[in-house]
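Structure representation.

___
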Amino acid sequence: MMSKTHLAVGVGTALALTQPQTAKGCCLAIIGGILGGMMPDIDILDNEHMMDAIHGQIIVAGMTAAVLVMDHFARWGVCKELFSRDPMLLIWGIIAWIVLYGIGIPQPHRGFTHSLLGLIAYTIPVALILPSAVPCYVIGFASHLVMDLLNKRNIRLLFPLNWGFCFGVCYANKAANQILLYTGLSFSLIFLFHRFFL
């Protein structure tokens, strides 16, 4: 699937499965879902959709920053939790994030970053930086893997084994992509509207 679809479904799935009751919980679902939804596609150097992946990463950075700024001014609690963490844990989390990001970029597409091992590895920095976002991040990451399993190209889910898996029911950039994109967006908007305005 394309980047925007992974982002929309990552957030929508995180909201649906965690059912946050507070503004802080909604922020965590958005941040975790969007980061997890995009993380497997950091393997952009061996990706025929490199520009789509780069655009997705820009959207992730912008949305994460926007949610954190809103949280800071509204005092919902995510920034307070983030800055009350042990500084050494934050530093180690940021270092781990940078190292793992650097490892992921040159990987073959749908290899390590699309595996269960990758899910575990890329969750470690999140656990060090903002532990309360981990469930939403894992949900977003898992939603990415599940959607890519629907495609007609294998993912190496059990990396480092060479076995690839796919269900082969749809193409990454055709009708199923659009349906999932608009379903994820619609659900997220309806959920957030219901939480804050009804």
Summary: Helices lie at 3-18, 23-38, 50-74, 78-83, 87-104, 116-129, 134-149, 175-197. The chain has a mean pLDDT of 92.
